[in-house]
Amino acid sequence: MSNWKHIRSDQGEGWVLLTLSRPKVLNALNRELLEELNEAVDWIEKTDSVRVVIITGSGEKAFVAGADISEFNEIKAASQAEQMALRGQSLFRRIENLHKPVIMAVNGYALGGGCELAMCGDIILAAENARFGQPEVNLGIIPGYGGTQRLARAVGKNMAKYLCMTGEMITAAEAQRLGLVQKIVPAPELIKEAKQLAGQLAQKAPLAIQLIKKSIHNGLDVDLGTGLQLEASYFGLSFNTEDRTEGVNAFLEKRAPRFKGK
Ligand code: CAA
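Above: the input record for the complex with acetoacetyl-coenzyme A. Below: its predicted structure, written as tokens.
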């Protein structure tokens, strides 16, 4: 693990907690932080002892308040802005497609790039004071790190348009009602709850977790018939693992399974 300037990391039994840390600017995503996050993903991908990832923001006020607006005036051409969006999108896609569950522990504002980052997680755990929104329209721009795409897929076309067009912030409770947030916890409990959930997921069969993720992701991009066929083939792959033997035998022997990811 590297010594990052804007990311703190903490490891426990099977999980790593990454805390994005630029508290003076509400953890806004500048180039440096995005590069470090890319390095963190490299490290997570090759570190077998990390089975679950938690991402949160430093401080009590914000998860991430968006891309760093102070860097925007350096952009002089549409093509430069397009490249910026593509770089961010490719990093966020890597996070979304990690072969390990990613819990986004949203501890405050998740705006613009922050909401877009949260939507790349598998599970969004939100503190009661969390706020979600895509306020780019107020800057005269549109979301660029996947907001129009993932929000529409998460909450439906018209609600996504409403949120992106008004720039309105929604509460954790409203985000949960829309299906964006899976669980809300009191702010002081957020990290404890995230670690507990991570610990629970770290005990599951890693290959099964990986195949569940792939089956849902790939299935959503195709018609139902093709998706069901994909599920059947991943079901087949999950049967062909040592962890299946272990899981089934443990059930029959009335003991807890010990999964190895094989
Ligand atoms: N970029 C850079 N700096 C930011 C920032 C951002 N996204 N968000 C907050 N900050 C800075 C503020 O400028 C302020 O700095 P100073 O103390 O030096 O003035 C500091 O963080 C604290 O913020 P506020 O004083 O504004 O705090 P507040 O409690 O009054 O308001 C807020 C909080 C509502 C989140 C407000 O800061 C805000 O609206 N931030 C911008 C949110 C935004 O527009 N995000 C989208 C960015 S564009 C984007 O993300 C594009 C994309 O899709 C890739």
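Notes for the reader.
The chain has a mean pLDDT of 97.
The domain at 206-252 is CATH 1.10.12.10 (Lyase 2-enoyl-coa Hydratase; Chain  A, domain 2).
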